[in-house]
């Protein structure tokens, strides 16, 4: 069972350490009393969606013997106005580049990740409407 320990470092800054000893810092924007020195906890949620699904996609494409040369992910979330200010929409764009990168295999990998494997996506989609698109060598596709 995953476990983290979070320690307050003053003002609105916290340091979180997982069971493997990996540490990440969180802070609030200056408007919320922080120093804006690290990602906010909600930014980390969006990063988790990208990281979790990205790991899946790379792994799936590797099993398909598809070589990816570049891969980045953009995630944008819009929050509701009232507390708790959960995400109401989250848009994810996967951008992959490679010489022999078939769009149908990329779509299959993305679908497997977001529909079956990525826990972070499944957590966020409990409150947010999620939209997924992917680009292969600059050509954009909507996930079907």
Write structural notes for this entry.
By secondary structure, the chain is α+β, with helices and mostly antiparallel strands. It is 31% helix and 35% strand. It is built from three helices and seven strands; from the N terminus they run βββαββααββ. The chain has helices at 41-63, 103-117, 119-124; strands at 4-10, 13-18, 23-26, 70-79, 87-97, 129-136, 139-142. The strands form two sheets. The protein has a four-stranded mixed beta sheet with strand order 4-5-6-7, with helices on one face. A three-stranded antiparallel beta sheet has the order 1-2-3, with no helix packed on it. The protein is globular and about 50 Å long. It starts with a strand and ends with a strand.
Q: Helical percent range?
A: 25-40%
How far do the termini sit from each other?
34 Å
**How would you write the strand order of the largest sheet?**
4-5-6-7
Which spans of ≥5 residues are poorly predicted at pLDDT below 50?
none
The major pleated sheet works out as: 4 strands, mixed
Radius of gyration: 17 Å
Order of helices and strands: EEEHEEHHEE
Q: Kindly report the average pLDDT value.
A: 97
Count of distinct strands: 7
Mass-distribution shape: globular
Indicate the proportion of strand residues.
25-35%
Q: Specify the number of helices.
A: 3
């Amino acid at each position: 069972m995953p476990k983290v320990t979070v320690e307050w470092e003053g003002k609105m800054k916290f340091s979180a350490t997982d069971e493997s000893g990996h540490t990440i810092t969180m802070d609030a924007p200056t408007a919320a009393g922080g120093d804006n020195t690290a990602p906010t906890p909600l930014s980390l949620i969006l990063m988790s969606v990208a990281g979790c699904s990205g790991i899946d996609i790379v792994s799936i494409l590797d099993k398909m013997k598809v070589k990816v040369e570049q891969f980045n992910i953009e995630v944008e979330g819009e929050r509701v106005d009232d507390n708790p200010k959960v995400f109401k929409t989250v848009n994810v764009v996967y951008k992959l580049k490679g010489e022999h990168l078939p769009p149908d295999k990329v779509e299959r990998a993305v679908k497997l990740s977001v529909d079956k494997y990525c826990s972070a996506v499944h957590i966020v989609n409990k409150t947010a409407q999620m939209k997924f698109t992917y680009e292969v060598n600059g050509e954009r596709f909507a996930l079907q």
